[in-house]
Specification:
- There is one protein chain.
- With 423 residues, the chain is mainly alpha-helical.
- The protein has one domain.
- Helices cover 66% and strands 3% of the residues.
- The chain is built from 19 helices and five strands.
- Helix 4 (90-106) runs antiparallel to helix 16 and helix 6 (124-140) runs parallel beside helix 16.
- The longest helix has 27 residues, at 367-393.
- It is globular.
- The termini are far apart.
Length: 423
């Protein structure tokens, strides 16, 4: 699509993002696609159906990116956030994933699920949303009157020292090409197709999953939504400027905007090749409010957040599932508050959430995304096991006893270190 001016192109992109997020929000609500629920079903009941739905979303997104890049339609080399960046902050990926996994368990769902539940009438999610928003905002923006962020205060001084500066992008295709030889594009295609094939074999070998319409629909729609927005931001929109054809992203870059537009302050923020992620965008809602709803701060992320909420709301009304729900007691409030804070910290530190890294990031084959994805699953599973032990054994189960017994259950410690009988 070719536009004569940036404002029309920007409006088209943002509304296309909103529409895609709207569909995803409605379908996630309808199918109960939930990444925390997927881990819970696996840990507590041995049921991997919803986990397979998550993997199906990954599979669809990976195949889609392979098709886009191998045909020269789009490139994911420079994205927001920089999934393939050569700065391999391995500790931040792992730690961010762990923190986020713990947080989403205490908060009763990841960032995407928070938006879906908010649209469905869950008033707890207002508190979770607000805490994530403030935390994510100050992870990236200085506290008033200072130049310090939450990230710089808590993490930068020690985590950055362990980051590895790579000579290539960090995606698996580039790393393999650098170490075993071969063309990067070809290696990306091979790795992507092999990964997708392996996932499909695992996903479809379950007869229960193959019979589950909702799990298949949820996985397909989430994966296709991520892919659609990759295409929208990377290849759909071009702008005719002084005889040149510029992409939406290139036009809004600092150099292009300063050359083509008179008002530098009106340059839209966070324009770039990107797809769905929800922690930083929830923080962008606060930024929009603090800037008096200036149109320059109506970003991709803001429209994605609003789209998911709206889609979930409409489906909950149509299906008559809209229900108001509040905290059962102060402990319930405190758990959600802590969970939201941890999700805000972990989501920014690990460069994404269950969707942002677990689907969008992995679709680029970024090694860091696999680290964060693993950290999220481990952090959530461990927290669930500890909570379950403390629930069953009550006063007898100290945190240490529950923690050690959970690690034994997960086969990370020898049986001799078990402190509580297995449940």
């Amino acid at each position: 699509m070719i536009f004569e001016d940036f404002s029309s192109a920007q409006s088209t992109v943002l509304w296309a993002v909103f529409a895609t997020a709207f569909i995803m929000g409605a379908v996630v609500n309808k199918t109960n696609f939930c990444t925390m629920g997927a881990v819970s079903d696996w840990v507590n009941m041995g049921d991997k159906s919803r986990f397979r739905a998550w993997l199906l979303a990954i599979c669809v997104a990976v195949i889609g990116v392979v098709v886009l890049e191998s045909n020269g339609i789009a490139s994911m080399d420079k994205t927001l956030p920089p999934y393939r960046g050569s700065n391999f902050a391995w500790l931040e990926y792992i730690l961010g994933g762990l923190i986020f996994g713990v947080g989403m368990t205490y908060g009763s769902g990841c960032a995407n699920k928070t938006l879906v539940r908010l649209g469905g009438g869950n008033l707890k999610s207002i508190v979770v949303f607000a805490v994530i928003s403030v935390t994510a905002y100050f992870m990236l923006n200085p506290f008033p009157g200072t130049d310090q962020t939450l990230y710089s205060e808590l993490f930068y001084s020690w985590t950055s020292k362990l980051s590895i500066s790579l000579s290539t992008p960090q995606d698996l295709g580039s790393l393999l090409a650098a170490n075993v030889g071969g063309d990067v594009a070809t290696m990306r295609m091979i790795v992507g197709l092999v990964l997708a094939a392996a996932l499909l074999v695992y996903i479809l070998k379950s007869a229960d999953f193959r019979r589950s319409f909702d799990n298949i629909l949820g996985g397909l729609v989430v994966g296709l939504s991520v892919l659609a927005v990759w295409y929208i931001t990377a290849a759909l929109v071009t702008i005719s400027a002084d005889g040149d054809m510029l992409s939406w992203t290139d036009y809004a870059s600092v150099d292009s905007w300063d050359m083509l537009e008179d008002n530098a302050d009106a340059r839209p923020r966070d324009v770039g090749v990107q797809s769905f992620t929800f922690i930083n965008p929830i923080g962008q809602i606060l930024r929009l409010i603090l800037h008096s709803f200036d149109n320059a701060y109506v970003t991709f992320g803001v429209m994605a957040v609003l789209g998911v909420i709206a889609g979930s709301f409409i489906w909950s009304v149509i299906s008559r599932s809209f229900r108001l729900e509040w905290f059962a007691n102060f402990k319930d409030f405190l758990n959600h508050f802590i969970g939201a804070f941890l999700m805000g910290v972990g989501g920014v530190l690990g460069l994404g959430c269950t969707i942002g890294q677990g689907v969008t990031g992995i679709s680029t084959l970024a090694l860091g995304s696999f680290f964060t994805f693993t950290g999220i699953i481990f952090g959530s599973a461990l927290t669930m096991k500890i909570q379950y032990y403390k629930l069953v054994y009550e006063d007898e189960a100290s945190f240490i006893k529950a923690f050690l017994s959970a690690l034994v259950d997960m086969k990370l410690l020898p049986t001799s270190m078990r402190k509580l009988d297995a449940i």
